Amino acid sequence: MTFRPITIVILSILFLSGCVNTVPKDLESISTNIKIEHDSFQNQTWITTPLYLSRQGITDTFPVKISFRSLYKNDMREFIQLYVTSTNVDWGFYHSANGEDGYSFGFSDIDREVSTVGNMVTTEEHFGLIFPIDYLEKMSKKDWKIKVYGKRYGGVFIVPENMSKAFMNKLSCYESDKCS
């Protein structure tokens, strides 16, 4: 049995993203899964959403896994980051990203990994997009498109409104000392 290259790509993406859920539609499902983890030894707190698969439907050409996270040190917010994982059959060498309004995100390379399944090799690139709280507020008003640029590849993905809104609400709750 022979496979065409596009079939292999589709199968590898489905295989590798099989254990990651898509973003739930309702705010409550997202909110209840946001974790607040305090490390008293470093006097810091991480607030994170689960890793979700961002999909644009059947025509999606750049499926990625996304998670919001924010770091607080000494009860002061250090940053808000959209953590992104892209899986492909080759390196994209991503280096920058812009929001649909032209906003240029701070870009942070986090990790690159290679996996093999049988004779198929896949790459996984992890990077972070850093932005201020007012931009998260803007993203929480509608589904937000982000375009990632790389030396070889690039693509557009969507951050669902409900995911941004739930994370925004959790940060507000934490900062007002109403949740732990």
TrEMBL record:
Descriptive protein name: Lipoprotein
Protein's organism: Shewanella surugensis
Organism lineage string: Bacteria, Pseudomonadati, Pseudomonadota, Gammaproteobacteria, Alteromonadales
Top-level lineage group: Bacteria
